[in-house]
Amino acid sequence: MLFLRSALFFLGQVITAPIFTLVALLALPFNPITRNYLISGWARSMIWWLRITCNITHKISGLENMPSTPSIILSKHQSAWETLAFQAIFPEQSYVMKRELLWIPIFGWGLAMSSPIAINRSAGREALKKLVSIGKDRLNKGLWVVIFPEGTRKSPGERGKYHIGGAWLATHTNTQIVPVAHNAGEFWPKNGFIKKPGVIQIHIGPAIQTAGLKADAVNQLTETWIEAEMPVLNSTF
Q: What three-state secondary structure class fits 186?
């Protein structure tokens, strides 16, 4: 039954993705906020479809911590779920991603229309410069910026190295960070087809102000909060 439910969800993704890619292309003349809202309709519909087919819902704690101005979200990365759900939870946003994702036929075209920050991860210092340049532009246009500091998805209980890019962008644009912990990997595993029913827990932490701090210190504050929160939310399911 889990396989059939997961297959039905996947079928919905396959059928609707080309439709929303067309929407993304037609939305090109609009401003970034409007265009992003239209494109993220696919993600919002997939979160609804996930609930219908796989009985996966989510519960949010800490909504009161969300700033009223564009911010940088630094989040745990366990699943494809958060790349969809964040578009339903947070204001319009720009994702920092590896540039290779834009090369995927059809899917990548839609991504390109959503004002992403696509970087070459192997470029080192040049990648940080590009991140700051484009990230500042996205923030000035009213978009939030989403970064997964561990870079790639990690299984529940696994802890990756927190890369400095998000903290670097925050300190170089004087922007607050919103740390996010969640346990989506317990229900939608990384690279996993089978999805288990349940309630994903998302904890949004108090904003981390970055003025006067070095990027290393900001990165450490973010990592400390997120990793300390993981055992707390894992104990609730």
A: helix
